[in-house]
Amino acid sequence: MAQTSSWSLSGALKGMFTKPTIDETTWEDLEYALLTADFGPDVTEAVIDDLHAKVDRYRTTDPRDLQRMLRESIEERLSKYDTTLKLSERPAVVLVVGVNGVGKTTTIGKFSKFLGTYGRSVVVGAADTFRAAAVDQLATWAERGGAQIVRPQQHGQDPASVAFQTVDFAKRNGIEIVLIDTAGRLQTKGGLMDELSKIRRVVEKQAPIAEVLLVLDATTGQNGLAQAEAFIEHAGVTGLVLTKLDGSAKGGFVLAVQEKTGIPIKLVGQGEGIHDLTGFTPHVFAQKLVG
Amino acid sequence: MATFGNLSDRLSETFKNLRKKGSLSASDVDGTVREIRRALLDADVALDVVKEFTGKVRERALSDEVNKALNPAQQVVQIVNDELVAILGGQQRRLEFAKNPPTVIMLAGLQGAGKTTLAGKLSKWLAKDGHTPLLVAADLQRPNAVTQLTVVAEQAGVAIYAPEPGNGVGDPVRVAKDSIAYAKTKQYDTVIVDTAGRLGVDAELMKQASNIRKAINPDEVLFVIDAMIGQDAVKTAQAFQEGVDFTGVVLSKLDGDARGGAALSVASVTGRPIIFASTGEGLDDFEPFHPDRMASRILDLGDILTLIEQAQSAFDEEEALAMAEKFSTDSFTLDDFLKQMQQLRNMGSIKKMMGMLPGMGQMKQQLDSFDEREIVRTEAIIQSMTLAERQNSKLLNGSRRLRIARGSGSTVTEVNALVNRFEQAAKMMKTVAKGGVPQIPGMGPIPGARSGGSKKQQPKKKGSKSGNPAKRATENAALAAGTKSGADLAPGGSGFGLGGAAGSAAPTEEELASLQKFLGR
């Protein structure tokens, strides 16, 4: 958390909010800051129009007001949807999906620790049977997070069957939360996306799926939207996890993702440590983003 | 995003009302530049780069070269394309090997960029070229990265040096250093050092990377970057340039639908060339980077050259010669048609191929719903014909068609559609074979080649490139007819059912024709 300031917009915005009045360059600076934070041309335009209207309405010329309005505007957009995780079923099955290399396995490790601190028993299912050594990577994380793990019985086993066995294991042993790791897949691969639907179908035969979390990398650009749309269609995503926020990327594209799809952000990951995962609070996020 | 269509379509739209005007005004150009700016931002090109870029384009677009062009929209796209290629490095660069082996290659990048997978691909590629690569597991950070590299090395069939178990144990600098000595004694001629993923802002880890670099003095330092990365590409690339001073860039995950504007940002900010592109999860999905093709991709112009290359490598040359012979002697039969289709399937996923065609960006959804089993159905229909029927499609009268439809589990409409398609294809091939112009799409300047024509044709962009207006007209007509006949006969429901297949088969046949021609010479 020591480096949170680095992903904030405050650096880019500092100059403009310390000026005495709002002028044309303020707007240009604001546009620049939003675009470089990956908000994308559409959301940037919408946010700026919105702020323009507000500034006109309240007849303010103080950039500090603008900063406050920007923060409120972002917070308002983010808090439109319910960001709480719903894990009330027993067992509560959570499917973790995403493209390659966004941090699904790491997120699961951190998430199991996160749940463990609330006194929940957790089992993770290593349904990423594709990537080399993914199962071992998950096992290490599970150990760190104090969770049990269900491994595939043989090399290249069908991921859906691993998922099935994991839920089965949880039911037999009375474990409260099931986290299922899936292989990373690009949203353009139809066959792999169908596999995801299959995992979902198979798991649902045993227990209802509580949450499907789509992991998105904060460094992703406008392609994040395409990813979200495809995963929503095939996996029925119910929440987003934004990872790698400890870098210099700001993940502005999630605003567009949330707005276009109506799926809320539920967790944020900010580092490689086991504790670097927190629930998502719009207020805090907006605060950090705008500074 | 796809909803906006591709840039050239958008520009055409902007210019639509200007056709009657003799020249472009500054405000017309500004509108265009705004579109370009938006397209580039949508493609995740960094804002600073976009600004500089649009400035240049604006200047050139206002100059005479556009005003004199017949189709200003296309001319502007051409300018944009040229400028993109210029920034992306103009031409390919190859890996540089050391005079005294071993050649040391170091990989660096963010977490999840695909370094470990790339290490495997690179080693396999080098091994195929007769090198003896050694993979070095210097990612001791991520849980079981060492295990992953071991598995990857095994799949690629290359040696690995992994003295430390990883998971936070061991000193990567030491491992990297020792590996060089190890490679020397064991006579490996290339050493590929896989390092841990790190964030640009993590000073400590960047220091470690720079220490590794100092310790092994690599001949190439490859910066692996995800094609999906957004505006952060610039900062990350700069941080890595300062930290490890990479000599080349590898763009990974290009098989997704990200436009990969990051490539442009990185190349323009750091001035380092992009050497490789990584395009899939298999160890063979790896190719040298082509700046010109990337430019087209960023603009959503499609990747015809790659398509043609794939086609070329999949075609058996002898068979191609025999086929070319057939075209010219006018004995192209349904059997050949079937054989070609089967060959097409060898070329890999048709979806993938179609995705490379220009203008298909906006057809992604239809593409997704396009069923490759359509080809299997076509096969079934052809195989339900007697040998005589296959040799001579004119034999096919009503009752024969009914029998074929029953035999293949299809309907007469479908059989009719297939026969029509075949006849179109055969006709087209004859034209080509008899000294017609080889219509290799994308050979000429892509944008200029569009016969400025009707909106209908644009998504396919398959217009003839013949210099002779009369020939162009007839060939275009043949094309249009080919697509249309398929669409008309499509059984209701999805526009990409059989009709879609027909639409796609017709141009492919045409392409085949040109390919055969190409190979035959």
TrEMBL record, chain A:
Species of the source: Mycetocola zhadangensis
Subunit-structure text: Part of the signal recognition particle protein translocation system, which is composed of SRP and FtsY.
Domain AAA+ ATPase: 90-246
GO biological process, any: SRP-dependent cotranslational protein targeting to membrane
Residue ranges annotated for the SRP54-type proteins GTP-binding domain, each copy included: 91-291
Keywords annotated in UniProt: Cell membrane, Cytoplasm, GTP-binding, Hydrolase, Membrane, Nucleotide-binding, Receptor
SUPFAM superfamilies the UniProt entry points to: Domain of the SRP/SRP receptor G-proteins (SSF47364), P-loop containing nucleoside triphosphate hydrolases (SSF52540)
Binding site residues for GTP: 98-105, 181-185, 243-246
Domain of life: Bacteria
Task of the protein: Involved in targeting and insertion of nascent membrane proteins into the cytoplasmic membrane. Acts as a receptor for the complex formed by the signal recognition particle (SRP) and the ribosome-nascent chain (RNC).
Pfam families per record: SRP54 (PF00448), SRP54_N (PF02881)
Signal sequence coordinates: none
GO MF term (any one): GTP binding
EC number of this enzyme: 3.6.5.4
InterPro entries listed in its UniProt record: AAA+_ATPase (IPR003593), P-loop_NTPase (IPR027417), Signal_recog_particl_SRP54_hlx (IPR013822), SR_rcpt_FtsY (IPR004390), SRP/SRP_N (IPR036225), SRP54_GTPase_dom (IPR000897), SRP54_N_sf (IPR042101)
Family: Belongs to the GTP-binding SRP family. FtsY subfamily.
Membrane topology: Peripheral membrane protein
Identification of the protein by name: Signal recognition particle receptor FtsY
Principal localisation: membrane
Automatic annotation (TrEMBL), chain B:
Record's subcellular location: Cytoplasm
Pfam families referenced in this protein's UniProt entry, alphabetically: SRP54, SRP54_N, SRP_SPB
Keyword Ribonucleoprotein annotated: yes
Recorded superkingdom: Bacteria
Binding residues annotated for GTP, in chain numbering: 109-116, 194-198, 252-255
Keyword line: Cytoplasm, GTP-binding, Hydrolase, Nucleotide-binding, Ribonucleoprotein, RNA-binding, Signal recognition particle
GO biological process: SRP-dependent cotranslational protein targeting to membrane
Biased composition annotated in UniProt, kind: Gly residues: 492-502
Catalytic activities: GTP + H2O = GDP + phosphate + H(+)
MF term (GO), any: GTP binding
EC numbers on record: 3.6.5.4
InterPro entries: AAA+_ATPase (IPR003593), P-loop_NTPase (IPR027417), Signal_recog_part_SRP54_M_sf (IPR036891), Signal_recog_particl_SRP54_hlx (IPR013822), Signal_recog_particle_SRP54_M (IPR004125), SRP (IPR004780), SRP54 (IPR022941), SRP54_GTPase_dom (IPR000897)
Keyword RNA-binding applies: yes
Chain residue ranges for the region called Disordered: 435-521
Enzyme class name: hydrolase
Ranges that cross the membrane: none
SRP54-type proteins GTP-binding domain segment(s): 273-286
GO cellular component terms listed in the entry, alphabetical order: signal recognition particle
Main location (coarse class): cytoplasm
Domain topic, free-text comment: Composed of three domains: the N-terminal N domain, which is responsible for interactions with the ribosome, the central G domain, which binds GTP, and the C-terminal M domain, which binds the RNA and the signal sequence of the RNC.
PANTHER family: SIGNAL RECOGNITION PARTICLE 54K PROTEIN SRP54, SIGNAL RECOGNITION PARTICLE SUBUNIT SRP54
Assembly and interaction partners: Part of the signal recognition particle protein translocation system, which is composed of SRP and FtsY.
Family designation: Belongs to the GTP-binding SRP family. SRP54 subfamily.
Record function comment: Involved in targeting and insertion of nascent membrane proteins into the cytoplasmic membrane. Binds to the hydrophobic signal sequence of the ribosome-nascent chain (RNC) as it emerges from the ribosomes. The SRP-RNC complex is then targeted to the cytoplasmic membrane where it interacts with the SRP receptor FtsY.
Protein name: Signal recognition particle protein
Origin species: Mycetocola zhadangensis
